[in-house]
Amino acid sequence: MALGTSEVTDGTEAADGTEHLGTAGVLERLRLKHRDPDADHKHPANVTHYETASLGERLADRLSGLMGSWPFIIVQSLLMVVWVYLNVWGIFVAHWDPYPFILLNLALSFQATYAGPIVLLAGNRQSKKDRITLEHAADESDKGEEQINRILVEIKKNTALTVQILNELEAETA
Amino acid sequence: MSDDAVIPTGREVVAAQHKHPVNVLFHDEATTGERVADKVATSIGSWWFLGIQSVFIAIWISLNVLMVINHWDPYPFILLNLAFTIQAAYTGPVLLLSGNRQAQKDRLRLEHTAEVAETSERATIDILQEIERNTEATLKVLQHLKKRRDASLQARA
Predict the structure, then answer these.
(1) Residue B21 lies in a domain
(2) Which of A73, B16, B33, B46 has the most other CB atoms within 10 Å of its CB?
(3) Do A147 and B95 touch (CB under 8 A)?
(4) Which residues of A41-80 are buried (b: 16+ CB within 10 A; e: fewer)?
(5) Rounded to two decimals, what is the model's pTM?
(6) What angle do CA A63, B109, A51 make, to 5 degrees?
(7) Is the residue at A10 inside a domain?
(8) pLDDT 10s digits, B27-40
(9) How many A-B residue pairs are in contact by the CB < 8 A criterion?
(10) What is the pLDDT of residues A143-174, one digit of tens each?
């Protein structure tokens, strides 16, 4: 009898322990990783995507990170303003690209020509990651199913025993 | 209880404090640069933007073809071409900016999923162990009953 009660208290303590582990600290741990793609990742899809990326993939990430950033947009704007200013109001320089700025047009078209493929490069990286993520999710779901089956088997065992006890008790009263 | 739960629409969610840790980090704790990036991406990627751009182009071309006012950009509209190029030169980086944001969110979401999966796996194992303990106790009850029955049978005999 004493053995039985001690086992029960052990059980509740374990349940409390998991509850604390489950809710606390997740936000804090995620906050540390928020803006750091070089952080140690937990999810296998993240590990594959960031930590085992090839040289070309790392370069693609760098490139899309560089082009898709505020410094890039601001520097581009400044260059454009300086270009137009020098070609309209510049005093000590030759006006190499007067109104309507055909060379500036070419330069910006050049940028746009590269931006398109870089956007697709980044998009392809993401869709590959999505594929890996789904494969991992399927593995996880198989694992979860297996665990649920084990629980069900155990509960059935328990029910069978309880039925036997009931039979014993009914036989006793009969 | 589940009947009371109403799924909020997108508009309500934008204004509210978020519940999911990834949304909290991504939206509620976004820096000014990130907020502006989101605003710009949603503005450019909207029907309003497309509509205004189309109207603007139509007016530009009409004014330069029709004989109403001074033709500042006659056929073949070289300045309009420059304006298009400038738009494209900004759309690319903004597209990447927004894409990088989404990639960051995807990364965070997966990390959160991994955290949750770990917790739930531990919970599942606890549940299994608890049931096993229960089974053990039930078995003991059964054995106890059997022993009592055997004893009473012997006593009767």
Answers:
(1) yes
(2) A73
(3) no
(4) bbbbbbebbbeeeeeebeebbebbbebbbeebbeebeeeb
(5) 0.76
(6) 50
(7) no
(8) 888 899 999 999 99
(9) 192
(10) 999 999 999 999 999 999 999 999 988 887 77
